[in-house]
Amino acid sequence: MLAVYLATSEVENDRRAINVKQGMYKARKERRWMRRAPFGYINTLSPEGEKCIIPKEPEATWIRKTFELVAEGSLSISQIHKLTQSWGFTCSSSSFYKLLHHPVYCGKIVVPAFEQKKAYLTKGKHQGIVSVVLFEEVQKLLQNRAPKRRSSRPHDSLPLRGFIYCPLCQKRLTGSSSKGRFGKLYFYYHCRTPCRYRIRADHLNKYLIEALESLSPGEVYKSVLGDMMEELHLDIQRKMNLEHAQISKSMENLIGRGIKAHDLYLKGEIDAEDYMLIKSDCEKSTKALGAELRSLIRREVTTKKQARKVIRWLSHLDKLYQKLDFSSRQQLLSLLFKGKAVLETSGFAHATNRTTRLIFRLELSDKELKKTQQAKDEELENPYFKKIWQAEKRKGHILSLEQLSKCIAFLKNFYRLASN
How do 341-342 and 164-165 pair as beta strands? Predict the structure, then answer.
C-alpha cells in the first residue's frame, strides 16, 4: 500500500507540473495576462469573472505622456526619465528602458515558446495605454538612438601590435595600414611621434614564424607534459564515469516512473489523458538524457585525441601559432616572451623569458645562472619537479623551486591553450 501511495503522489506531482505549464500557455494563447499587473495597470476581474488587467490612473496617463515625449524626439531618454520622476515615477533607468520596450502597453501579449511552438505576439484582451502606431514609432526611435558599437577586434595582420617594443626609444609599438598606389593595403608596426621607427608587418610576422619553427623542446619537458596529461586524463575519466552513472540512474528513474504510471492507468487510478501526458514527458526527458550520454562518450574520445596533439604542438610551435586565433596567439607569445620584448636585429630569441630558454634548450646568460638558488631535497617531492631538476642538473643547470614551478605552470598553460 505504501508503494502505491508513494507512486500515486509522484504521478500527481508530475501531472500538476504539466497542468500548470499547459494552463499558463493556454491563458496566454487566449490573450489573457495572468501575472501581477505591470506598472500602469491593476489586477481585477472582468464581468464574466475572468482575471484581467485595466489601466490605473494617474500612472496610465504618465506612461502615455512618456511615449509621446519619446516620439517627439526633443529630449533624451535620461532627460525624460528625470522628468517622469518629478511626476511620481519611481523606477530605475533599466526598468524605465524595459517599460518603453514592453508590448503590453500597446495592448499586446507575448505567447511564450511551448514544446515545438515558437514564441509570438498576439493582441491581448486588455486595453492598451498607447496605440500600436505610437508604440512602433517609439521602438524605431529607440533602435536608431542606440549607440553603434565599433568593432574593437584587432587586425589579423598585426598580431604583434602592443606586444613588442621599439628598439630606438623602448616604447610599445603600435600598428596600422597604409594604402598603396593601386589601392592595396600594407601593414606596418611603428612607434609614436616623435620617434619615426617602423617596420613592415609581413616581414616581422615572417621572422616570428621562423623563430617559432626553430624552437625545439627538451625531451624531459615532452615527457613531463605527457605524464601531466595522463594524470589529467585519468581525473577527467573519473568525472566522466561519475557523470555517466548519474545519467544512467536518471534514465532508470524515468523508465520506472513510466512503468508506475502505466500500472496506475491499468488499475483505473489515473485516466488515459493523464497517462499519455506523463508518458510523453518521460519519453522527452529520456531522449534528452540519451543525447547527453552520447555527447559524453564523444567528449571522452576527443579528450584522448587532444592529448596526443598537444605533445606534437610543443615541437611545432610555428604550426600551432598559425592555427590559433588572434587572442590565443597573444596568449602563446605571453608564455614565450618577456614582459617587455624589445625588437632587435638579432631576432626573437633574446626576447624569450628564462622558462622558455630552459624548455626549448636555448642558451642561458651568465647572469641568470648566477642568480639561481638550488632547490632543496625536501622541495623535490613532486615527481615532475624531480624529473626536470635531475635532467637540468646533468646539463649543468641548477634550478630553484620557483624556476621549477614556472616550468610546470608553462606546461599547464600550454596544454590549456593547445587543447582548445
Answer: parallel
- DSSP string covering 364-384: PPHHHHHH--PPPGGGG-SHH
Is residue 91 exposed (0-12), middle (13-18) or buried (19+ Cβ within 10 Å)?
middle
Q: What is the pTM of this model?
A: 0.53
Distance of alpha carbon 246 from alpha carbon 70, whole angstroms: 54
Asked if 40 and 56 touch (Cβ cutoff 8 Å), the reply is: yes
Angstrom distance (rounded) from CA 352 to CA 208:
12
Rounded distance between C-alpha atoms, residue 97 and residue 263, angstroms: 53
Q: How confident is residue 151, by pLDDT bands cut at 50, 70 and 90? A: very low
pLDDT digits over 78-107, tens only? 888 888 888 888 888 888 888 999 998 998
Query: What single DSSP character describes residue 103?
Result: G
Query: Domains in the chain, start-ordered, CATH in brackets?
Result: 31-143 (3.90.1750.20)
Q: Determine the Cα–Cα distance for residues 127 and 130; give it in Å rounded to an integer.
A: 9
Asked whether 130 and 64 are in contact (CB, 8 A), the reply is yes
Q: Which three cell numbers stand for residue 75?
A: 529630449
Reported confidence tier of residue 150, pLDDT bands at 50, 70, 90: very low
Give the per-residue pLDDT at 3. 43
How does pLDDT run across 192-205, given as a tens digit for each residue? 888 888 889 888 88
CA 296 from centroid of its chain's CA atoms: 20
Residue 52 gets the label, from left (phi > 0), alpha (psi -120 to 50) or beta, of: beta
- Predicted confidence at residue 220, as pLDDT, reads 92
- Give the C-alpha separation, 49 to 207, whole Å: 80
Question: Which of 189, 166, 185 is closest to 176 using CA atoms?
Answer: 189
41, 43, 95, 40: which is closest to 65 by C-alpha? 40
Cβ count within 10 A of residue 25: 16
In angstroms and rounded to an integer, the radius of gyration of the C-alpha atoms of the chain is 33
Q: Could you tell me if 69 and 81 are in contact, meaning their C-beta atoms sit under 8 angstroms apart?
A: no
